[in-house]
Every structure is written in C-alpha cells, then in structure tokens.
Amino acid sequence: MAVTDSDKASAHVKPKERFDFFHDERVRSVFYQLLTACTVGWLAWYLITNTAHNLEIRGMNTGFGFLTATAGFDTDFKLIEYEPGIGTYGRIFLIGCLNTLLVSSFAIVASTFLGFFVGVLRLSNNWLVARLALAFVEIIRNTPLLLQIIFWYVGVFALLPRVKNSVDLSGGAEVLFINNRGLYMAWPVPGDLFWMTTTAFVATVVGVFLLRRWAHKRQDETGQQFPIFSASVALLILVPGAVYLVTGSPLEWDLPTLQGFNFRGGFSLPPAFLALLVSLTIYHAAHLAESVRAGILSVNKGQTEAALAIGLKPGRAMALIIIPQAMRAIVPPLISLWMNCVKNSSLAIAIGYSDIVALFMQTALNQAGYAVEMVGMTMAFYMFISLSISGLLNIYNKRVQLVER
Prior knowledge:
It contains 12 helices and 8 strands. By secondary structure, the chain is α+β, with helices and mostly antiparallel strands. Among the domains are: 89-160 and 271-400, Orthogonal Bundle (MetI-like fold), CATH 1.10.3720; 194-249.
C-alpha cells in the first residue's frame, strides 16, 4: 500500500506531553531547592528568636549596640590608632581582625615558599638532603601545633638577649634589632611626592606583566627566548628608582633608638607575633611539602625526560614543565592548608598575641558580655576569610585543570 505525504507528516508530529508536577525534573529541582531554602531560613529564624527570648528572660542584653560603646582596655600590638576609654568595641574588633590577617598572610606566603622548597628537596638525588627534608616533615607534622607555638615563644624568643644587649641583624646599620621584647625595625615615612614613585612602581608592574605575555607569545611563534626575569628586575628597579631620584628622594626613615629601658621609634613586632609566625610557617610548610612531593610524582616521568632531551636544565625543567603540571594535584590540598593556617592562628591565645580571639572574644567579652554576638562575629570573620580563600583558589584550580576535548 502506498504511503501518502499526509501519512509521512503525521508520523513526524510528536505527541503532546502532559505536564506532571511530580515527574517533571526541572519543576522538582526548583521546588526542592525552595523547600530547602525555606526550611533553613525558618530554622535560622527560630534559633535567633528563641536565643534572644531566653537571653531577655535572664536579663542579658542583646543586639550590636555594644560596638559603639567605649572600651576601657588597651592592647600591646595594633596596626591602627586606638586609645582606651575613647576607642570603641567596634574598633577593638577591627584591630583583632587586622592582627589576625597580618600574621596569617605572612604565614601563608612563607609556608608556601618553604613547603615547595622542602617538597622538591624530598625528591633530591642527594641522600643526605632527601633524608634531612624527610626528617623535617615527619618531626613537624607529628608534633601538635600548640606545643610548637609554646616552644618557640618560651624556648626561643623569651631567651633572646635583653634590650641593652640587642642583636643588630642589619650588620651594624642599626636599622633592625631583635631582643626578648621583640623585633625592632626602621619604618618609612613618605614625603609629599612619594606618590609618584608608587605610581611608577604600579605602572612598571603592569608593564612587566604585559612584557611577560609578549615574551611567551613570541616564544610560541618563533621559538626564541627572552630574558624575562632579568628584564623584569631591571625595570622594577630602574623605573621607580629614577622617579624617586628625580622627585628629590621623598622618603625618610624613622629609626629605632635605645632610650632608657626600651627602643623608641620605628616599628616593632612582639615576641608572640614572631613565635606564632614561625610556628604557623613551619607547621604548614611540612604539610605542604608532602602535597608538593605527591603532585610532582603524579607527573609522568616522560615529561622530565622530554624536557631534558630538548636541552633544558633540571632546574628549568622543574620550573617550566613539572611544577605547572603538578599544580593540578597540589592546589586542592593547598586550599585546605591556607584556610587552616588562618584558623590555626587562633591558637595565639595561648601566648597572648592580640588576635581576634584573644582580643575580642576573650578580653572584650569578659568586659562587655554579649557572648552570642561576639562569638557569632568571630565565626563570621573566619568563615568569610575561608570562603574567600576557597573561592580564589578554586578559580585558579579551574584554570590549571586539564580541558578535555
């Protein structure tokens, strides 16, 4: 029997789908997300209102009005101006945040460089170097961080010479001293035209970035290498330096000088800060070293052999070929390590460093009360920093991951 055109057209017509709320995947997805969001919101509202009601029954104050109240205590280390009896609890919270961020930032940078260095040494062909790196990793990783902090504070920095016998770390230039009261250093005092030097430096950094991109593109197209490192260092020194000299060297230094029983002038870091910084750096570097070693071992040995076959030296092969590929395995644990570095800085309370926990959640809490609000603000601070670190490193992690074709 012949098939007509009308039969062919009707064969291509799809049957009309019936809408079913419980079987439509998109509708169910949106519905369950809304249901979950409403449930979480209701639980949060219930906990907040119930907590406020219980505190009110017990005669305890609630709210965040205490942030504008004056605080009657001082701190031994602060990055911004503060006077007891004039400054507020809100400023105390800001001081604690800045102190925590300062030691955490330095510890993250230092532990990252040290961790990569020790991780590469773990794979050294030199038996002694590899074993020393292994001993460092195993000893530091298997010792509690709190004990290391106390060791550096009590057993190292507390035993340094007294103020009158301070050690001049600048080799006689008298700009950097260390003693049992801390580290004292010269502090720059910029003049009116120093902003020109700063602008020149920022512009040079941008120029170095563009130069690096141009050099890589040129190498990909022609195979010719450009001395990026030496050219970048020269530009970063010569351009801002020339602007600095032309504008009349608008920078002075506030030098630390011994007056009476202590140094005056300059900038100082207390022993608690130094002990915490060294402890966080060494502890997290030991953990990162194993991640670096595992990441390097995850790269196929053929990559190293190919790099050496085309004439690259082992150091260049490691920097240009192996490490960039190993970053795919290193970055995920690096995210947790950086977040832990920030959170572990709260152990500073054991040695009296004025971080956010010791300053805001202990001293300020004992004086003002408002336990729920202060603990909640401290938790929110750590959560914000951790989520920021996770978000930034996850963006980088996506860039270094292999793209499937």
